[in-house]
């Protein structure tokens, strides 16, 4: 079997698995559809959360991104893991105790206000759609690269699969497919990483290989890479070039954004008890950390390999994988000085750089660089698809439940029957898949740029009002509504100003206090906190029933009892 | 819409008028907030402290037996390991606290 045949077989097998799981785990009630009947074990929920969370960007692009950014790439590593500590300590147990179906559900009830509910619904849909369009695009790109089909056809195939299991199974179907998708994606990520680590450092554990000794030279690997960087005029790999303040703010925006993303929060509604919610966040982070501590190792292995194997090499003698990936446009060589050799150098070098490298190649080409068998290439394709599909499904569920539950059931038509709501949820999920697919196939120019900012928007809207809703009984509806609106408006305005209206001004000198648009969500969050707390001081305190509700949320006992009363 | 009878929160409202029970619940909450505070200080120290603000001076130290500059290690490896440990420590502390105050969930589920 050749690479194409392996890729096709492995993708088809994984899709058959997802469909099988969807049929087995159909949703029979709205409770199944929204929160998987709250019967998911903490371990399974941890895996599902990890797959939900890790998108095509984590799987395909992150290691490459880090390998170009060096130390600065730490913002993603810490930012996208540290948020789980906030989730476990500040959010998940209380939201599980409350026993709602969605995030706007909690916001609307805690802030005794339909306006707060509607603002939360709009924020949830806005954040989720910005994110999901990128995922559908990711599905298309993986198909395009590995099976050489048109990107749009790839998007439609992905839509069909997600449509099937999200519409049929709701949260229940999504949860168990995500468990399978996690297994596929982590296996696909670890196999090439372990081989690369063995090849370069002789240590099979990539996390240790990263701190190990380079087999070829006998020098510690990171020292060798820093040396290569210096020689070729790049900034030191372990040093970084961003300002400390900006690194600080970007990390904070990503961490808090993670803890405020509705599709992550609702995963912790699906476990049976409060203590399950706590430990489930721990398992989620274990499964995420496995990939996130491997990624910086892959980044260093791939970077060292690339610099050592192509730098100053005659173009006629490049390794085979180089020629193959040149065909995809991910590698481009332009012999500026006509000496027939590849000069791959940084801004600090007197020579001109002749090689353009796309970040995605660092993961996609790994199996070939490491000389692994053809089936591993197919495995990486199936892993990339698993990562993109699992995240897309989780996001689509947020959108559909925001429409059918928060808007229809809780606001517009409270007397809708259980069956009617389930039908509405399925229609909303189906419609959301179609809209997401449309954006995936016809991405408006701004989507790609805006995806990364979903975090800033989530950080500046949900996180402060949920935390304050639990930890401060005095927080009022007026405070929460104004806080959410001011936080998300400020953040969105700053991002739109620098990324869409005036991209030419998007440099450190023009930023407020040197904070980039990526990090501005942190300021938006602080603004939201300040507005919510100040306004709460000067408005009438929440009704007695709400204060009692907050006291009940704070203690674990009674969450199980809600089962028997809830349908 | 707190009075909405369909609100999941509204349906699970046992009476908490007993002053002794309320005092115990407040004590439970204070202990929880203290645990959270201490753990978040560690969370902040390993990431924003060692991994970002102090990363440069810490890079002068290499972890013995490896090639890791210490600040770089905290930023790309160590902080993540500590995050995992923090969550499991919190789980253990809270499970104990729930039992101590007799507020743990009975196996109704």
How is the biggest beta sheet of chain A arranged? 2 strands, antiparallel
Poorly predicted runs of chain A: 560-567
Class inferred from helices and paired strands of chain A: mainly alpha
As a percent range, the share of strand residues of chain B is: under 5%
Distance between the termini of chain A: 52 Å
Radius of gyration of chain B: 21 Å
State the separation between the terminal residues of chain B, measured CA to CA: 28 Å
Query: Can you tell me the overall shape of chain A?
Result: globular
How do the helices and strands follow one another from N- to C-terminus of chain A? Answer: HHHHHHHHHHHHHHEEHHHHHHHHHH
* Rounded mean pLDDT score of chain B: 83
Structure description:
- The complex is a heterodimer of chains A (567) and B (109).
- Chain A is an all-alpha fold.
- Chain A has 24 helices and 2 strands.
- Helices cover 72% and strands 1% of the residues of chain A.
- In chain A, strands 1-2 form a two-stranded antiparallel sheet.
- In chain A, α7 runs antiparallel to α17 and α11 crosses α22.
- Chain B has 4 helices and no strands.
- Chain B has helices at 8-11, 19-53, 55-58, 70-100.
- In chain B, α2 (19-53) packs antiparallel against α4 (70-100).
- The model of chain B is unreliable at 1-15 (pLDDT under 50).
- Chains A and B meet through α5, α6, α10, α11 and α13 of A and α1, α2 and α4 of B.
